[in-house]
Amino acid sequence: MSEILLQIDGKEVKATEGMTILEAAQRVGIHIPTLCHHEKLQPYGGCRLCSVEIESRGWRRVVAACLYPVEKDLIVFTRSEKIDRIRKLIIELLMAHAPDAFILQDLAKEYGADRDRFEKEASFCIHCGLCVRYCAEVKKKFAVGFVDRGTRKEINFIPEIAAKECWDCKECFPLCPTEALQAAYVLCQAMISSAPASESA
Amino acid sequence: MPRIESPAELEAFRNEILSKRDPNKPCITLCSGSACHASGSRDVARAIEEEIDKQGLSQDVEIRKTGCHGFCERGPIIVIQPEEICYLQIQPEDVPEIVSETIKGKKVIDRLLYTDPATQEKIVHESEIPFYKNQERLVFGSNGNIDPKSIDDYLAIGGYSALAKVLFDMTSEEVLEEVKKANLRGRGGGGFPAGRKWEGSRNAPEEIKYVIVNADEGDPGAYMDRSLLEGNPHSILEGLTIGAYAIGSHEGYIYVRQEYPLAVENVNIAIQKAEEYGFLGENILGSGFDFVVKVHQGAGAFVCGESTALMTSLEGRAGEPRPKYIRSNIKGLWEKPSVLNNVETWANVPLIINKGADWFTRFGTEGSKGTKIFSLVGKIINTGLVEVPMGTTLRDIIDNIGGGIPGGKKFKAVQTGGPSGGCIPERLLDLPVGFDELTQAGSMMGSGGMIIMDEDTCMVDVARYFLEFLTDESCGKCVPCREGMRQMLKILTNITQGKGKEGDIELLEELSELAKEAALCALGKSAPNPFLSTLQYFREEYEAHIREKRCPALSCKELISFYIDPSRCQACMICARKCPAEAIDGGKNKIHIIDQEKCTKCGTCFEACPPKFNAVKKISGEPVPGPVPEEERTVARKSKKK
Amino acid sequence: MDNERIDQIIDKHNHEASSLIQVLLEIQSEHNWLPKWALERVADKLQVPMTRILHIATFYKAFSLVPKGRHQIHICMGTACHVRGAPRVLDMVQDLTGIKPGETDLDLKFSLSTVNCLGCCALGPVVEIDGQTHGKMTPAETAGVLKSYD
Asked: Lower Cβ count inside 10 Å, N or C end of chain B?
């Protein structure tokens, strides 16, 4: 694995080929906030909170640090006026769903985000995908997945699998930044327990 | 049909086909694209077959159901060869006369010809009709000469000669160089140089590579790809095979929208015939080159037109885009180098090979070579598909080909680039059409949709419409698009309903920046464009909606009222009878009054009031005048004097 | 449509998981909707998780997880049709049928959906019912056409 030299916030960083900006930054103690990232899971690139500005081959643009592979002579800015505006707005948009989530409240303080900027939405879920991806990639049970697309997207438990697996597992529960996962599970439990005997596993 | 095993055999076979065809034999060509089908061309086809049979002319007259001719406003279209007599808007009832008078009697039927609206002159030949005369139909022109279900027709016009030349007279490097020299830029929206994309894949150190046709044409109002794929599927297969040879790929995919059943059918037939004849499969034309093509249907998701989402869909998953930090021509379908290009891009390839890059670069501008097919739709007289050299001005397209705006209305804007594009106002109409020119004006070329809007179109509503479209089609994975668009749509909907407030425009601009900078894919990054471009050129409309609760175009339902002008109403009862909400009170000689509580703003009365009275008015931003007192409701009729 | 037919369709696509969408499209086209037992059969035969199939079946508009009505109404909401007044046609149809796009009425008579461009822009506004295209529709005319369906 060849060594790659890049610059993050003015600091010279040694990284290896195949690393992402996020991994390289973590190596040298530079903090980039994330929501949908988890060390045990493939990077997702959904929350965009880890957005950073890069300068490469004369062009300056915004990329997701959790996914962008390190390159020779890359210049990275983990904070800037633009980045801070982006992160503040992301937090405000998510707080329309889960205004009381601790992680969002902490981020709101740091970036000066207004908890009530947007009218509250009906669903708590912020679509970080941690539960879905953990169940698929780590537990390999596929008990919970996504359905639909866009603003109608939701997480959905498969009742037959959940009835068998979830009670003894629940490893995804602490991963959820909001109460959405628990709510979805409780709903599913209700469906299973009220179903006729012949249908459950 | 034994496979053709060499270029010599191909030419021999081609000559055999041509020798069996008499160029002087009368041939009735009938446009059989999906749009003409919708206008009734299937019934016309049946009528023609029956009439020819009835008059005993089956041996003497050819009937050919061709691909789309492009002049969709005037379909169904018949062109009688070899004289090139063009008849428009044909109904089955016209067929017996056509057969008797024109086929047998060699006489032209005036009432079925095109009439030039300026000179009232009748035009006989298709190519002289201004709609066609002002185009340069290099790619699309063949549609009218072939039956897309017939491979022999394609061979008769020189098809597959480019493939033979490539496989036997050119190395794969030479093919790549020719495409690079031609500066063919992607016709699907991105405008990326095809040669460079191909080169990246060619140089990638992988055994397995893929070539893909993006036929998931999703921009509403754009249907060029459908007509190309329906009307001339072999041209795309030939281009695709040439591209595969250039980069070293042996497997190709055509991803077609399932909403295009005729295109799916015709391309499947074309593949089957091409395999039979030896243009696909193993050892193509005896060259030793293998290449197979599979068709995959889309299932109703606009986002699958985005290249990484398309590839994810090909892999049998929900079409969520992937980050393009490593380009898909290096790591694409199944992580292998994949060249994905649009239908029209592939269709240009055989042309470039046959006639050469030097010829191709004679058309177009410095940065945009060749021609582009546009779908010219909306508030325009000649709706249809038009092909022009890059560099033609928008004004030329709209006036000289499109024939201008119907109903004597004033042009307002032309929307290009679909949901990723923007609106261009009247003062920029002398802009030459090209990738960079349109982008600089705040829009983009996109796939070629060109939607004309007139004075009755509300530009705020246009922005809202596109945002509604995009929120419906967003995959939902990333926050800037899913949440950002959600909020933008809410704000724009409020504005069109009279609930806009100060600060809305600034918030919309903030959300636009978020999407442009931080969204995961091109759909999200370009989603704010319709809003940003309408704000740039029509800011006064936004301000009127927000500050005055007024819609200048008199279009937004919640901001307009329908009102019958008592000084003009002649109490003819037409609108009262037609009103679906029974909201009009009135009688013979009694001035009609619209009950604003019942009115659903459907606009039926506005359409129904005879133009000579012109009594129904739309008003906005002001209260509806109070009703005329009962005593004054009798209509004062003008006395009839001889 | 039964398990045997589903197996046939899967065989035709060489048991490849990448053909999942093509398989579901065939089932949808023949059966007019995707019942749960059909999805379970596909999951079992192609060895793919149910979550993936459900995501696909809900992500793509072509699929329906509930039975559809006898008559399919598609209203084109493409830009050209929009500019020519399609939203008013949609309003009329919603009022008359009592359903919104994506829904089927309780009698299973009509299923309504909006389409983003049927490619017949010259005829806009366009309404397609059971595959039959009706062009240049006004709200009043659409009301008349709908009454003729039973």
From this structure: C
DSSP code string of B56-90: T-TTT-EEEEES--S-GGG-S-EEEETTTEEE-S-
Q: Match 């309404």 to its residue by tokens.
A: C127
Residues in A whose CB is inside 8 Å of some CB of C read 132, 136, 142-149, 156, 158, 161
> B514 and chain A: CB distance < 8 Å anywhere?
yes
Q: Rounded CA gap, B350 and B167, in Å?
A: 12
Taking the domains of chain A in order of start, what are their residue ranges? 3-79, 130-199
Rounded to whole angstroms, the Cα distance separating B318 from B88 reads: 44
Give ipTM to 2 decimals: 0.94
Q: Which of B104-118, B328-342, B504-518 has the lowest mean pLDDT?
A: B104-118
Chain A partners (3+ C-beta pairs within 8 A):
B, C
d(CA B156, CA A162): 62
- DSSP letter (8 states) at residue B104: I
What is the CATH number that goes with domain A3-79?
3.10.20.740
Q: Which of B34, B260, B378 lies closest to C83 in CB terms?
A: B378
Fold for the domain defined by A130-199: Alpha-Beta Plaits (3.30.70)
Separation CA B328–CA B197 (nearest Å): 9
Report the C-alpha gap between B594 and B600 in whole angstroms: 11
A64 touches B: beta carbon within 8 Å: yes
Terminal alpha carbon distance of chain C: 25
Q: Which residue of B has its CA nearest to A46?
A: B478
Segment B256-279 mean pLDDT: 95
- Angstrom distance (rounded) from CA B563 to CA B617: 5
Q: What angle do CA B447, B531, B526 make, to 5 degrees?
A: 45
CB-count burial class (<10 Å; 0-12, 13-18, 19+) for B631 = exposed
- Which chain B residues are closer than 8 Å to A153 by Cβ? 476, 482
Contact between B490 and B319 (Cβ < 8 Å): no
pLDDT tens digits, one per residue of B564-590: 999 999 988 999 988 888 899 988 888
Domain edges within chain C: 3-59, 71-147
Count A/B contacts: CB-CB distance under 8 Å: 93
Partner B contacted by C99 (CB < 8 A): no
Can you read off the two tokens belonging to residue C56?
């696909």
Rounded Cα gap, residues B17 and B516, in angstroms: 55
**Closest-CA residue to B526 (of B370, B431, B417, B631):** B417
* Domains of chain B by start residue, with CATH: 23-132 (3.40.30.10), 159-360 (3.40.50.11540), 371-454 (3.10.20.600), 459-548 (1.20.1440.230), 559-633 (3.30.70.20)
Query: The tokens of C138 are what?
Result: 């006004």
Q: Which CATH architecture has domain C71-147?
A: 3-Layer(aba) Sandwich (3.40)
Instruction: Give me the pLDDT at residue A186, please.
Output: 82
Q: Given pLDDT bands bounded at 50, 70 and 90, which one contains residue B638?
A: low
Closest-CA residue of B relative to A150 is B476
Q: pLDDT of B67-96, one tens digit each?
A: 999 998 898 999 999 999 999 999 999 999
**pLDDT for residue A58:** 83
**Are C54 and A158 within 8 A, CB to CB?**
yes
A1: buried, middle or exposed (CB in 10 Å: 19+, 13-18, 0-12)? exposed
Q: What is the mean pLDDT of residues B343-363?
A: 97
Q: What is the CA radius of gyration of chain A?
A: 20
B161-169 and B7-19 helices, crossing angle to 10°: 160
Say if pTM beats, i.e. exceeds, 0.90.
yes
Residue A114, min C-alpha distance to chain C (Å): 33
Neighbouring CB atoms inside 10 A of A58's CB total 5
Q: Decide if pLDDT at B318 tops 70.
A: yes
